[in-house]
Design a protein that fits this description.
Largest sheet: 7 strands, parallel
Number of domains: 2
Shape: globular
CATH class of the largest domain: Alpha Beta
Order of helices and strands: EEEHHHHEEHEHEHEHEHEHEHEEHE
Number of helices: 12
Radius of gyration: 20 Å
Bound molecules: magnesium ion
Distance between the termini: 15 Å
CATH superfamily of the largest domain: Enolase-like C-terminal domain
Length: about 400
Amino acid sequence: MLITGCEVFLVAVPTRREHTWASKMITPIGHHAIVRIDTDEGISGWGEAPAIATWGGAHMRQYGETPVTVRHMIVDYLLPAITGLDPADIGVIHARMDRVVKGNPYAKAAIDIACHDSAGRALGVPVWRLLGGKRREGIEVAHSLGIMPVDACVAEAEQAVAEGARTIKCKTGLDPERDVELVRALRARLGDAVKIRVDGNEGYATVREAVDVTRRQEEYGIFLCEQPMAGAKALAQVARRIETPVMADESAWTVHDILELDALEAASTFSCYVTKPGGLFRARQQAELAASLGMTCDIGGSIELGIGNAANLHLGVALECAVLPSVCPVTRLAGVDGPEICGVYYRDDIVTERLPFRDGVVLCPDLPGLGVEVDEEKLRHYSGVPGTTMVA
Ligand SMILES: [Mg+2]
């Protein structure tokens, strides 16, 4: 089975509310590139790149991508490099992609996901089997509260917990007093059974500020302190002065970042994405290395739609070290019953069915490939314009 062409769509889906964090207060969520890879056997696979211009690594070590740069890289560089290859030969595909484009991992991830989907469909196996097998049934949802007033956060968290969330993630990093008050108010309203994690998205200005905020939050019980400052060195300085485990996100893109985090003792856990390292193949390498160094991870992302979320789920059930509750979106389809708040960031999706959500866990599909089907009518509706077709 050989890759013959692809089509790229730039979608924008309606959101339930604005979802913001310290380094992204303006750019909207839900503007993603969707790619379909075609083969000579008539089997196609789907991929997604939730690229955001303001999303990158510390100190410009990784650069922002956008749906438009993803389309450009795929159409003009990546597709020509992989045309004629079998999508199952994923290591070869990555070597070809890396030879023609440095960086741009979100574009490569979209291709990688589509290759896994088509290879799984051709072989009649779910993607999790291609990743080494299934170790759990799904991903436990951490419901993410964007940067919002404390009252709005508490009201939303209460509703999310009523719908099944057992973990609440707080976006923080812009206002130390608000960040402490938020954790205090959530704990007072939600009780001790709900886990609370915080994510500063590199927002704190100094080690002293990050340490002070976190120690005060610790009085109310938090179990993860995610990327309070920019850079692994600063994370290490914070980690030495707080009780809570530090999670690296913006400082954990590649296997080399994991080596640096370990060498500096900067983080005991990291947010593993399908996209940051450039796809499922690379994410697995990164997570296996981290696990061998004693680290755990969650499965993070940029509020994926159904395709990207399915890729996250297959990775999450396959990785032994992916043990932490994650910001795994709960799919909402217009006109279909389901949770209204818990894990819900969009009002509609481009897949035909919701991924099952039970007891606070989004379940991973067992069907061949990613196990989701794309609603092509909705895909074209939300992309507004026809996709960019490339036949090599
Ligand atoms: Mg994060």
